[in-house]
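Fold this sequence, please.
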Amino acid sequence: VIVFFGDHQPKFEDSFYKKILGKSVKELTPEENMELYQVPFVIWANYDIEASADERISLNYLAARMMEACRIEAPPYFRYLSELQKEVPVITVNGFWGKDGKFYTSQEDSPYDPLLQEYRLLQYNNLIDNKHRVENFFD
């Protein structure tokens, strides 16, 4: 199984964006700015796997998506991420898209705040809180 992805498009001068978008990067809405970070990804296997196209996903979900596509038994944390993705398909530092199709900035309230708070706590437990880390959930 091979996964190809990038984390952003190449950086261009603001004059280039102004020419193709009709306005400078500084004038973009937060949602329009996020569109600049879209990159395709490919999950390839040398056996038949589920195909998908035009899937909106953020990098935090890519490993879970790969396990799902390849029918690999995922640890609980990755199953949790697959369920979270159904509610909040894209999460970035600048904002996120909810399943309602609306883009929310990181600073505004949303109906997804309880889910995102739970996700923050799990990330903290996994990455920082070594003393209380729930090993069998993440491994």
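Residues 113-127 form the longest helix (15 residues). The radius of gyration is 17 Å.
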